[in-house]
Structure formats: C-alpha cells, structure tokens
Write a structure and sequence with these properties.
Blueprint: H1 4-15, H2 20-23, E1 38-44, H3 62-70, E2 72-78, H4 84-93, H5 97-100, H6 109-112, H7 119-125, E3 129-134, H8 155-164, E4 172-175, H9 182-197, E5 204-210, E6 217-220, H10 221-224, H11 269-299, E7 306-312, E8 317-318, E9 324-325, H12 331-334, E10 335-341, E11 350-357, H13 361-369, H14 383-387, E12 397-399, E13 402-405, E14 408-416, E15 420-427, E16 433-440, H15 458-482, H16 491-497
Parallel strand pairs: 1-5, 1-7, 2-11, 3-5, 4-6
Antiparallel strand pairs: 2-10, 7-10, 8-9, 12-14, 13-14, 14-15, 15-16
Helix pairs in contact: 3-11, 9-11
Length: 498
C-alpha cells in the first residue's frame, strides 16, 4: 500500500503548480494585492444545523440568520468524517480522509501529508497575511509555517489551569458573563486582528474558530435564559435504528464529564434535557460572537472586499438514536451548516439544495481569489452555485467513519444522494462488506429504519453500492462535464466598483 505522504507527493509532481499570473485569462495582468479579496473563514465546532435559518423551531441565532440573508445558504452540506481532526484536515488540504490517511485525532497534516499545500499556505504564498485565532486545525501546532504569526487560542491554557486547580469539569455550565469564556477572549483578539489587518496593503486570510457549542456546553446565563426548558424539542427518536448494526451509533465523549453518570448507559431524562438546553445556549453564545465579528468587518468598511465562509466541522447527536456526540455516519453527524458571502454576488439571501462537501471550500476560495490549484484538489469550486443556486450539481457526496468491531478494523464508507444515505461497513484489509445501511429520506428523514435488506429497495442499494465503488472521482468528472462557466465579471473588477 502506498503511504499517504508518498501519494500526495506524486500528485504534486504530476500536476505541477501554477502561479496566479498563469491562472488569469490570456492577455490579463495580475491584480495588485490590494485588489484581491480578503478571506474570513469562521469555523464553529460541533454545530449541527440547529439554526433558525435552517428551520429549527426555537433556536435563537439572529446573527447567523441575518448572515444567511446576505449570502448563499447550503441546505445540503456534508462533512467527510464526523470528528474534529480529520474533518478540519479535509477543509485545510482540500483532500478526503481516505487520501490523506488522517482518520484519528492524533494525526496532523504536517506529519501525515507534509507535501500538501494547505489552504492557508496557498494564500500566504500569494502575498496574504494569514492569521489563525481559536480552533482551526485540531492541533494548534499543526501547519505552523502556513500562518504569518503563531496561532492564537487561549482555550488550551485555560483548560490546563482548571485541571491543575482541580476544578470540576461539568458537561454544561451557566456563567454570569462571557468574560472568562475562552471563545469570548479569542474573538476579542480576532477583533483586534481585524483592526490591524484592515490597515495593511496586502489582503488577509483570517480564520476564526469557535469551540462552542462543543462539549462542555458553557454559555453566559443570558443565553441560557433565551430558552424555556419546556419548549426545547426532544429527539424525534431515542431508539436505535431498526435493523442497523449495533456499532452504527455510539456514545463515548459524553461520559467524560464530572456531573454525568460514571459509566456508559442510558442518559437520565433530567440530564438529557439539561444537555439539550446547554447545547442551544452554547449555539446562541456562538451566534453572538459571530455577530461581533461580522459587525467589526462592516464597521471597518471591509464588506465590499471580503469573502466570508461560515462552516461547521460536523454535526452532533443529542440523544438521537440513543447516542450522544458524533463519531458515526448518521445524518445528524455528517450534515453541517455552511454559508458563503461574496462581494457583488447576485443571489443574496438564496438557498441551494445542491449536495456539497467540506473539500469544496478550498477550490471555491482560490477560484474566487484568482489563484490556481497548487496540486490536485478533490472538491469542486462552488462558484457557479453563487450565480445559479438551483442548478443540477453533484450526484452524491461521500463520508466515512472507522470502527473497531470484534478485533476487525472496519470503515463505514458512506454515500449521500438527494434521497438516500448509504453506508457499507467494509473490512479495511480485505475490502469485504460486513454490513450495509440504507435510509430512504423521502419517507424516513430521521433514519429510524435501515432498509438495506428490504427487497423493494434492492435496486437503490445496488445503485449506491456502485456509486461507492466508483467513488468521488466519477461524481466529480460527471459534474465537470455539466458545469458551464458563469458569465460573471472577475471578482477584482466587482470589488473595484464598490
């Protein structure tokens, strides 16, 4: 088997690396750095689409909902693996976990695929000031040479201080104010960075990562008070999926906190309700911080030359299917919120049901900035969707999750189409299918019953297994044949008009 870093090196050699000037149309000249768009990437940890703009009945998320009205909201965005490290590696490399080999939290991009030119690094190489605040890579020391200055995140130091002081670690917590919460401190630093960056001649790539609503669910009291506990929706089902393999849904992470039962088992009803309340409070807290960042961008007059992307690394279960946290291939874990705002875009406030993936962000941003792919990227630029959100797009998107079952190393290889979610649990060494899951979202949007073994769904099962075997390459090739390049002005010309 070829090691991931060797494979990536081959991609680099075969594809080459074009300069910005070579990517421009014939006869055009490179734009000055000041004409290139700034990039603001906001990452929100463990955020499932529990937002007003995504239809949640009581979520108080005015900042994100307002942003959705100024950009394009992706209703069907998906992550590649529902755990922080691999998901964020896919965002920053433009490559899938199966390509990089990054499947565990402990694996870094720098050590696993050092030859890859990361998203921040390609902008740095093209004259951008690249800044990381908060949680971007899972490991704060990953890809250090891709940033203009060392990443800033007070969360890790604050957590160590709590541990050393012997302070209990509850799974949910209400604070009198936000002043001592790490996300608030990080965002204050990001606001200062925006002030500084706005004075530079060169454009910037600023990545701001919020830890909330990741466990523990910490939020100011005023965010808790936004919700009546009696009105918080319970999971649509807390029962395991019928006819699914027993390992499909798990609940590991939730049991590591001091105020919950000491070992895995059914979550007590009262604690489950408090956790769901805490999650929504943490979502509202994150929403307020996003609002502060976006307000600062506007106050500094940066709206007209700043591309903004808001993205979550994966979803989360809150007792759904009897599971908690992520670590699976169920819809609630792989379905994520994603929104993009581009200066001069004509589809503000629009929504698209196109299937898109985390790896699509890298090619989209360099496309909009007029940069070339430094090596083969596995996603597709979503730029055409900015102008025509309802056009036919990808046939399928892909996810995975590794699982150890009875001393077997399995991979849950997942295909999501408009109607179905299919997962083949494959023995990694032999490639043999151990179990299959198929969920028909047309009649079962909560994925209550696996129909992979129903004869009526056998044709759909065969189609999705074929898609799995063909992989993302076939889907991307078909899409590229359909895409008609949008007749739009170059972004630098749009910016200069404002």
């Amino acid at each position: 088997m070829v090691k991931p870093d060797v494979f990536i090196t081959l991609i680099l050699i075969l594809s080459g690396s074009l300069t910005f000037a070579e990517a421009l149309p014939e006869g055009a000249t490179p734009a000055k750095n000041t004409q290139r768009p700034n990039i603001l990437l906001i990452s929100i940890d463990d955020l499932r689409p529990d937002l007003g703009s995504y239809g949640h009945p009581i979520a108080k998320t005015p900042s994100l909902d307002s942003f959705a009205q100024s950009g394009l909201l992706f209703e069907r965005a998906y992550t590649h693996q529902a755990i922080c490290g691999p998901s964020r590696a896919s965002l920053m490399t433009g490559l899938r976990p199966a390509t990089t080999g990054i499947k565990r939290l402990q694996q870094t991009v720098s050590n696993t695929v050092p030859a890859v030119v990361t998203l921040n690094k390609i902008f740095k190489q093209n004259g951008y000031e690249t800044i990381s605040v908060g949680k971007i890579y899972h490991d704060i020391n990953d890809d250090l040479d891709g940033w203009s200055t060392a990443p800033y995140d007070v969360s890790y130091g604050m957590r160590r201080a709590r541990e050393q002081a012997g302070i209990p670690r509850p799974a949910y917590e209400s604070r009198d104010s936000e002043e001592l919460l790490p996300d608030a401190k990080n965002v204050n630093h990001a606001l200062d960075e925006l002030e500084r960056l706005s004075q530079l001649d060169n454009p910037f790539f600023l990545a701001v990562g919020l830890h909330s609503p990741h466990l523990p669910f910490r939020a100011p009291k005023n965010d808790w008070d936004k919700y009546d506990p009696q009105q918080i929706p319970a999971p649509l089902t807390t029962k395991p999926q019928v006819d699914a393999p027993y390992w499909a849904v798990v609940a590991w992470e939730i049991w590591r906190y001091d105020n919950l039962p000491p070992k895995p088992g059914p979550m007590p009803l009262l604690e489950g309700n408090k956790l769901r309340h805490g999650y929504l409070a943490a979502v509202s807290f994150a929403d307020g911080l996003v609002g502060e960042i976006l307000t600062k961008v506007s106050t500094l007059g940066l709206d007209d030359n700043t591309i903004v992307v808001i993205w979550s690394d994966h979803g989360f279960k809150l007792g759904d299917h009897g599971g908690w946290a992520k670590h699976s291939t169920v819809e609630l874990d792989i379905h994520i919120p994603m929104m993009i705002r581009v200066p001069g875009m004509t589809s503000t406030g629009a929504r698209t049901a196109a299937l898109v993936e985390t790896v699509d962000i890298y090619p989209t941003l360099i496309d909009l900035a007029g940069l070339s792919e430094p090596h083969v990227l596995e996603g597709t630029s979503m730029r055409p969707l900015l102008n025509k959100p309802q056009q036919i797009w990808k046939q399928a998107v892909f996810a995975q999750y590794p699982r150890g079952v009875k001393k077997q190393a399995l991979m849950g290889e997942t295909v999501r189409t408009q109607r179905y979610r299919y997962t083949a649990w494959v023995e990694e060494m032999s490639g043999q299918i151990v179990a299959q899951e198929l969920y028909d979202h047309a009649v079962d949007p909560i994925e209550a019953r696996n129909v992979a073994y129903d004869t009526d769904h056998f044709p759909a099962l065969q189609r999705h297994e074929k898609l799995r075997l063909q992989g993302w390459q076939e889907v991307k090739m078909r899409l590229q044949k359909k895409i008609v390049k949008p007749l739009v002005e170059p972004l630098d010309e749009i910016i200069n008009k404002h």
